[in-house]
Specification:
two-stranded antiparallel sheet, Transcription Regulator spoIIAA, alpha/beta, 3 domains, four-stranded mixed β-sheet
């Protein structure tokens, strides 16, 4: 018996020919347009200056992007870490954030070198699909309000159920509000996204390279400027000054406190989980090179270490930016690297241009991305694989929307482990007599034949009438351990004293030929030992 070890995926080195430059260039602009408001908004929500969000986005693109093991993942500050950052700032002060990030980054880099990243591939596919859908629902629900220049609330459920209210605000022309003006920009941007993507297959090749989000934002920019609309626009820091904020010895002293050390470990674990689960999810969105999770974990740690040293926020892989990257046609790491350059250039040289981009048009892009992430059809696919997978998917999505991303994922992973435990402890035994030959009894085992299921199997074997030809079917058993086969072997010996016969069916096992069935084959051969060859099916 032999096993095959999967090879670690090769990490694509950052290289790009002239042919792909234009595609990567346009994709980087789209990612930049999506990343800019998110970097600013996450910083504000974390209770720190907006410039820290820009710093994190730049580091996530350049440092993490260059060394990344996930080719198309885009990293930066993420909403999943807002709560823990806010708590650190409120408890210890912003001065402690830098040293905590440095320590968290070192922990991640060590974990990457120890090859711990691959363990995240063990997460059930249903949980990964649920993460994508859950994030899609949260983004769709919150940005729908932003698209009409309204403020979303912290609860995903509340945002979802108040969408009709946002629609009403966008339709009604009020004397003292401008929601309807923002809504027109947002609807126009949405229409461009839908129409352009619908027409894209029929367009000439040079037009196919133009990303729909870029057109939507450009149209919003032009319309808002032409009509001089009094709506919300992107807010950008005034200058580059104050972007770099080196940690001090006073801040480093905080690391001697046990509570701060716990915060660093928490940041490392949460940022790693979100980044690597995001990388696995992004792999499902494209057919390019797969992610090297160990290298990605190291790159994330490097990014957090640098971010802590120069005054940024925690960095992790971000599904919204990554999805925009894939949707825009990116094929290499260069789009993520270049988007960081646009962030740097925008803040340093073009703040007056960015300040004329309507927030509503950017929100429309996120609404569309959120909608694309919601995959309801996957429920049917999961249902065919097993009802338990579909249940895990639905419950995880609901948990993410009702609580938050981290808690929802933990609930989904816990359910997956419970399902696994149930599968390995559950065994059904069905007994039936053949209609054409009542002298033959079939015992069909389904589930997992482990020591936990021994009482169930023993009761079933005890009910078999004496003097029959008994066929034990193992085709539908996922796993059978030695204790289970020993019970079958001992029972066979006793049963044959009643002039009965026992046959362990092997035909299907030969056809399936999986590793588990090799185990069942060996044990079945042992159970059939000393039987005449004609009695082994």
């Amino acid at each position: 018996m032999s096993t095959t070890t999967a090879e670690t995926p090769k990490v694509e080195k950052p290289k790009m020919g002239a042919k792909g430059f234009f595609t990567e260039f346009l994709a980087s602009i789209v990612v930049f347009l999506v990343a800019l408001p998110l970097c600013l908004g996450i910083a504000i929500a974390s209770g720190v200056p907006p410039a820290m969000g820009i710093v994190s986005g730049i580091i996530g693109g350049i440092a993490v992007g260059y060394f990344a093991g996930s080719p198309l993942q885009v990293s930066g500050p993420a909403a999943g870490l807002v709560v823990i950052v806010y708590d650190i700032v409120q408890t210890h002060g912003i001065i402690a954030l830098g040293p905590i990030l440095v320590l968290a980054g070192i922990i991640q880099m060590v974990a990457g070198k120890l090859k711990l990243g691959q363990w995240f591939r063990a997460v059930a596919p249903a949980v990964i699909y649920a993460m994508l859908t859950g994030i899609g629902v949260l983004i769709f629900a919150s940005q729908f309000h932003v698209m009409v220049d309204d403020t979303p609330v912290s609860s995903g459920v509340a945002n979802l159920f108040s969408i009709p209210q946002a629609i009403w605000k966008g339709l009604v022309v009020g004397e003292d509000t401008t929601h309807h003006l923002a809504a027109r920009i947002g609807v126009m941007a949405l229409a461009i996204l839908v129409i352009w993507n619908a027409l894209k297959p029929k367009l000439p090749s040079f037009l196919k390279a133009v990303p729909a989000p870029l057109l939507a934002v450009a149209a919003g920019f032009g319309a808002a400027a032409y009509f001089e609309l009094p709506i919300n626009y992107v807010e950008v820091p005034d200058s580059m000054s104050g972007l770099i904020n080196l940690p001090t010895l006073e801040g480093a002293a905080f690391l001697l406190k046990p509570s701060v050390l716990g915060s660093a470990i928490a940041v490392a674990v949460i940022a790693s989980a979100e980044a690597l689960l995001c990388a696995v999810a992004v792999d499902k969105l494209h057919d390019g090179p797969r992610s090297d999770l160990d290298q990605e974990l190291f790159a994330q740690g490097l990014g957090n270490t640098i971010s802590g040293l120069i005054g940024g926020l925690p960095i992790t892989g971000v599904i919204v930016r990554s999805t925009a990257n894939v949707e825009s046609g990116a094929k290499t790491k260069w789009s993520a690297i270049m988007h960081a350059g646009w962030l740097l250039l925008a803040v340093g040289a073009l703040p007056f241009v960015l300040e004329r981009i309507p927030v509503a048009s950017l929100a429309a892009v996120l609404v569309y991305i959120g909608y694309k992430l919601i995959n309801v059809k996957i429920i049917q696919t999961l249902w065919t694989r097993g009802k338990g997978e579909a249940v895990i998917y639905i419950v995880t999505v609901c948990a993410i929307v009702a609580t938050n991303l981290l808690e929802g994922l933990m609930i989904g992973i816990a359910l997956a482990f419970l399902k696994l435990a149930w599968s390995f402890s559950h065994l059904d035994v069905e007994q039936s007599e053949r209609a054409d030959d009542p002298g033959i009894v079939d015992l069909r085992l389904r589930g997992s034949g482990t020591f936990v299921g021994l009482p169930t199997l023993a009761r079933a074997l005890k009910k078999v009438p004496e003097g029959k030809e008994v066929h034990i079917h193992l085709e539908d058993v996922d796993y059978v351990d030695h204790a289970c086969f020993e019970l079958i072997s001992d029972w066979r010996t006793q049963y044959e004293l009643t002039e009965g016969e026992v046959v362990v069916e092997l035909d299907t096992l030969h056809r399936r030929g999986t590793y588990r069935n090799e185990q069942k084959q060996e044990a079945a051969d042992a159970a059939n030992a000393s039987k005449p060859a004609s009695k082994v099916a």
